[in-house]
Structure formats: structure tokens, C-alpha cells
Design a protein that fits this description.
Shape: globular
Helix content: 25-40%
Largest sheet: 4 strands, antiparallel
Strand order of the largest sheet: 2-3-5-8
Radius of gyration: 20 Å
């Protein structure tokens, strides 16, 4: 349950009715921590054939494009969909592997894309960029730090085509590096409104904040460091102007932005800034109980959802916050959320 954000400037919610009839939405959007933390995807809307080099706190990343250009932040929707499907299967106790067979239509609907013929063409181009972009890094996933080179997906193939030639189902093999992140559950839940963000920089900023804010009610970062972590190629003054535009628009899911003195940006969780008393803090025992009920779930996102649910219910007095939270998590587990 994310707090609503102003719809102006967001893409339309194209498939809202499908949430009630299509079981693909049982797979809550998940993103891997490593590419949320560090810039791997291009923010350009045109073919980007630069070689990207990034170094920060001992992490080195080099991203080399194919002839199609670098994989973009919108191409990443495919990986988010794949990660979400794998995590849903793991949480349900089903066997998983690096290779997934997916319905192209489901992927388009779950990521809030159009389902026109042109959308299928763009989906194919995204697969080509993901497979062609090569990464060399010492990033740790699943507790292992190995310097290696790989594509974001190892390979893909159209398994079945419709009569008109568009793909119906596609087989995707994820890189060992990304698959290891999924198995170690190094992932975080995203707001579904992430797929409604129009601009690449908005999506990238949301990822960074989602990764870093954690349980904090607010998080601050310098414009200089945010520019570096975003992977934006814009000069700092242009980047700062884009951030100010985002602040004015105020439609980042889950977070509000404001500019502070010292060239700093502050992000505040929407769920924690409503008027009135806050729910009491939870014990570590309650957090561990939630993990046991929903293995692999982002327990801190569950806590934020519970607090939002409590606030929306009129902030009733809580005699036992831990018991109320655990009961909420059990309800989510029974519903399959």
C-alpha cells in the first residue's frame, strides 16, 4: 500500500482492471540491490554508445554497449519483471532456474506498457540491448565478490509467434550474477507507480532513494554525489535544474523531495509525514516473525505498509503494536500479497 502521489505528469495506469483478473500481479515488483545502488543503465532516450566507467567506495563498474547501444533504465523493466517472477516462485516454494519462459503480453501489462504492435517491437529491441550490453565489475552479489564480465541477460529467444509475427512467449536466461542476487534475496520491493514514471531520471532517483532510505523517515544526499550515483551525463547545473523540476512536480512514489542549504537534497517518506501520532516502534522479534511468515519479503516495506494502513484506519490506539503488525503480515500472507 503506497501513499497516493499526484497523477499529473505520470503515465496513465493502463491496465488497472487487469489487477483483479490476472495472476501475474501476485508477483510484487522487485529490483536487485546492486543495480539500485550503482549506475548500470543508460538514462538516454536515444541510442547511447558510450563506454561507462564508475568507481565508488571500492566498487568498479565498466559498461560497454553493443551496436544497439547501452541497455536503458526502461529496458530494466524486463529484469524487474523476471526478478519479481522468480521471487514469487521462491516464496511459494516452487523450483526456479536461470531460464524463464514468459508471456510477452504479461510482461507488457505488468510494467504498464502499451500492448500495440510497436510495443512488441520495442520489447524485442530491449532484449537485444540487454543481451548485448557487457558489464565488468567487482560488485558483490549473494555474498560473493568476483570480478567478472557478463551480459545482463545471457540469451533470449522468441519461443512462439502470433500469426502477425509478434512474439507471444519468450525464453530468457539471466546472467549468473543477477540470478545469484535473486537466490540470496538481495532485492527490494518497488512501488507499482515506478512504471508510471515518464522520465528516466525519475526512475533512477526513485531506485537510489528506495535503496538508501530504508527504515529512516528521511535521507539526505549532496547533489554532487546524487549526480554520480544516478549515472546522468548532464552537467551539474542542468542536473540540479532537473531535480528542482522533480521537486515541483512532487510525484515520486513513496517519497517527497526538497532542496536544502549546502547543495543537498532531502527525501522524506510519505508514509511517515502525515499529521497525528505515529505507531510505536516494532521489536526485532516482530520483524523476525514477519520474515518467518513471508520468507523473502521486504519486511521494512511491510512495516511501511502496516503503518500506512493503521494511519488510513484513523490511527486507533494500539495496545500491542507487535501483535497488530504480525496480524497484518499474516493477513497479507493469506491473501497472497
Amino acid at each position: 500500500m503506497s501513499n497516493p502521489v499526484p497523477a499529473e505528469g505520470l503515465l496513465p495506469d493502463r491496465h488497472q482492471a487487469d489487477f483483479f483478473v490476472c495472476d501475474i500481479f501476485d508477483a510484487i515488483p522487485k529490483d536487485d540491490l546492486a543495480t539500485m545502488e550503482h549506475p548500470v543503465f543508460s538514462l538516454s532516450t536515444k541510442p547511447d554508445r558510450r563506454i561507462l566507467n564508475y568507481t565508488h567506495n571500492g566498487t568498479d563498474i565498466t559498461v560497454v554497449p553493443s551496436m544497439r547501444g547501452l541497455a536503458t533504465i526502461h529496458d530494466k523493466d524486463i529484469l524487474i519483471f523476471c526478478i519479481s517472477q522468480l521471487m514469487s516462485a521462491l516464496n511459494a516454494g516452487r523450483a526456479v532456474g536461470r531460464t524463464l519462459t514468459l508471456r510477452a503480453y504479461d510482461m507488457l501489462v505488468a510494467t504498464n506498457r502499451e500492448t500495440s504492435g510497436d510495443a512488441y517491437r520495442r520489447l524485442r529491441e530491449a532484449f537485444e540491448r540487454l543481451a548485448g550490453t557487457r558489464i565488468t565489475t567487482n560488485l558483490e552479489t549473494g555474498g560473493m565478490e568476483v570480478t567478472s564480465g557478463f551480459g545482463l541477460i545471457e540469451n533470449w529467444e522468441i519461443v512462439r509467434r502470433a500469426r502477425g509475427g509478434r512474439m507471444v512467449s519468450v525464453k530468457v536466461t539471466l546472467s549468473e550474477w543477477l540470478y545469484r542476487a535473486v537466490l540470496s534475496k538481495s532485492v527490494l520491493t518497488l512501488s507499482r507507480d515506478y512504471f508510471r514514471l515518464r522520465k528516466p531520471l525519475e526512475r533512477r532517483i526513485y531506485e537510489i532513494v528506495r535503496k538508501h532510505c530504508g527504515r529512516q523517515p528521511a535521507w539526505r544526499i549532496s547533489v554532487e554525489l546524487l549526480l554520480k550515483k544516478s549515472g546522468s551525463a548532464s552537467p551539474r547545473r542542468v542536473f540540479r535544474k532537473m531535480l528542482r523540476d522533480m521537486i515541483e512536480a512532487n510525484h515520486l512514489p513513496d517519497y517527497e523531495m526538497e532542496e536544502e542549504a549546502g547543495d543537498m537534497i532531502r527525501f522524506t517518506r510519505r508514509t511517515l509525514i502525515e499529521d497525528g501520532p505515529e505507531a510505536p516502534p516494532l521489536s526485532e522479534q516482530a520483524i523476525e516473525a514477519a520474515r518467518a511468515i513471508l520468507p523473502g519479503a521486504d519486511v521494512y516495506a511491510l512495516e511501511a505498509d502496516w503503518r500506512a494502513f493503521w494511519a488510513a484506519s484513523g490511527r486507533p490506539k494500539l495496545r500491542a503494536a507487535d501483535a497488530a503488525f504480525v496480524g497484518f503480515v499474516k493477513m497479507r500472507a493469506e491473501k497472497g500479497d
